[in-house]
Amino acid sequence: MSRAGAGAAAGCGSTPRLETEWLILRKFTERDLGAVYTIFSDVEVNTFLPWFPVKSMAEAEAFYETRIAGRYRQAQAYCYAVCRREDDLPIGYVTVNPEDGFDLGYGLRREFWHRGLMTEAGRAVLERLQQDGIPFVTATHDVRNPRSGDVMKRLHMQYRYSYEEQWQPKDLRVTFRLYQRNLDGRHDRVYTEYWDRSAVRFVEPEV
Questions:
Q1: E-assigned strand segments in 71-171
Q2: What is the reported pLDDT for 99?
Q3: pLDDT averaged over the chain?
Q4: How far apart are CA 76 and CA 23, in angstroms?
């Protein structure tokens, strides 16, 4: 496996507003703190995510400042509030972390699951990434959460390998599957960061 390079995307944009048939994707603002609390306090929604659910508005405000507003101060800051067109209120999010293999992350309030909304939002973000010259994206999911992998497949991401990690801050031993989509035509590129640093890594024959 060859380590993927990311130099081609240096200096790309931040969080341009996007619109789809059913959704508006935009920056979070301080006016969205109530929605931030609703999304990130739900235990089931956040079971397989790399943080503990927030338990109060104060924790939601701190989460917003460090994990959301802090992203907008970076040169690359794809951090989208996923909103329904009819009310422009956040019901979920899509993020891309340029510091970690262009890692794609997403979450959605439970009452909006199984409607194809996250796939619709993800497609819009990937189209924008390609326009901005981002060479590839990766995404991982806990093997106990195959529905997240289904979203990755619908976004035409390809399974590459699985690996184990002692996941922090929850301090759990987790087996992850990594998916990748190359946006620049380099179909042989494989992001190997997790493979290289994990003592337990393997390719599952059927995923």
A1: 78-84, 90-97, 103-108, 136-142, 158-167
A2: 78
A3: 90
A4: 22
- Residue 8 CA to residue 14 CA, distance in Å, equals 16
- Residue 176's CB is within 10 A of a number of other CB atoms, namely 20
What is d(CA 52, CA 205) in angstroms, rounded to the nearest whole number? 33
Sequence letter at residue 144: R
Of 183, 203, 198, 195, residue with least CA distance to 96: 183
Helices 146-154, 117-131: axis angle to 10 degrees equals: 50
Which residues, including other chains, have CB under 8 Å from residue 197's CB and lie 6 or more apart? Answer: none
Q: What is the pLDDT of residue 14?
A: 66
For 120, phi then psi, to 5°, come to -60, -45
Helix (H) or strand (E) holding 71: helix 70-72
Structure tokens at 17: 């507003």
Report yes or no: 179 and 160 within 8 Å, Cβ to Cβ: yes
**Identity of the amino acid at 61:** E
pTM: 0.89
Q: Cα 123 to the chain's mean position, in Å?
A: 12
User: Can you point out the beta strands (E) in 50-154?
Assistant: 78-84, 90-97, 103-108, 136-142
